[in-house]
Amino acid sequence: xxxxxxxxxxxxxxxxxxxxxxxxxxxxxxxxxxxxxxxxxxxxxxxxxxxxxxxxxxxxxxxxxxxxxxxxxxxxxxxxxxxxxxxxxxxxxxxxxxxxxxxxxxxxxxxxxxxxxxxxxxxxxxxxxxxxxxxxxxxxxxxxxxxxxxxxxxxxxxxxxxxxxxxxxxxxxxxxxxxxxxxxxxxxxxxxxxxxxxxxxxxxxxxxxxxxxxxxxxxxxxxxxxxxxxxxxxxxxxxxxxxxxxxxxx
Length: 250
Description:
The chain is an alpha+beta fold.
C-alpha cells in the first residue's frame, strides 16, 4: 500500500473514532441530568418500615453472607463481582465498578450488609463499616457521565475537524501537518478530562471540580494547538532537510 493509501486508511480510522466518540459523548451528556435526579432521589429516600415485598423507593438494610467474590483482574469485559447469600440461603449476585474498599477484602463466610433500593443492592457495608457502591448504586454516576461526555466530545470534535481538513486541502503538506496537530491535541484534551475525572473520584471532590479543573487545562491545550497550527501553516514545522543527498563535485 502506497503513501496515499496509508493516508486514506488513517483518515478513515480517525473519522470512525471521532464519530463514535461524539455519539458516546452526546449520549452521556444527556444522561447527566437523569443521573443527578436519581442520586438525589437516593439520598432523600426514607428507611423502609418493614421488609419490602416488592421493589420500593425506600432503603432497607439486609444481612448477607459472602459465598464467593471474584475481582476478575485481567479480564477485559468483567468487573469485580460477588455472590451473597440471604439468611434463607438464596443467592444474590452483585457487581461492582471498582475493587476497593470492600469487595477486594471479601472472603467466603464474611458477613456484610447490603443496602437495597428499588429491588437492587446498591451498596455493601462490611463488618468494619467500610462502604462501597455496587454497579447499581446511583452515587458517582453524574460525575462519571459528565467526565465521560467532556472527554469524548473534547476528543471527537478536534479529531473530526483534523480528519476532514486534509480532504479540502489535498496535496498541501502544511495543511496536512496542521490537521495532524489538531487531531493529536484533541487526544490530549480528551485525556485531560479523563485524568480530571480520575482525580475527582480518587479525592471525592464535588462534581463542579471536574469543569473547574479541566477548563483551564483545556484552554491551555487549545492555546498550544492554535500556536502549533499557525506554525504549521507558516511552514515553521516543515522539514528543511534536503530530500536527496548533495552530489559531491570532483
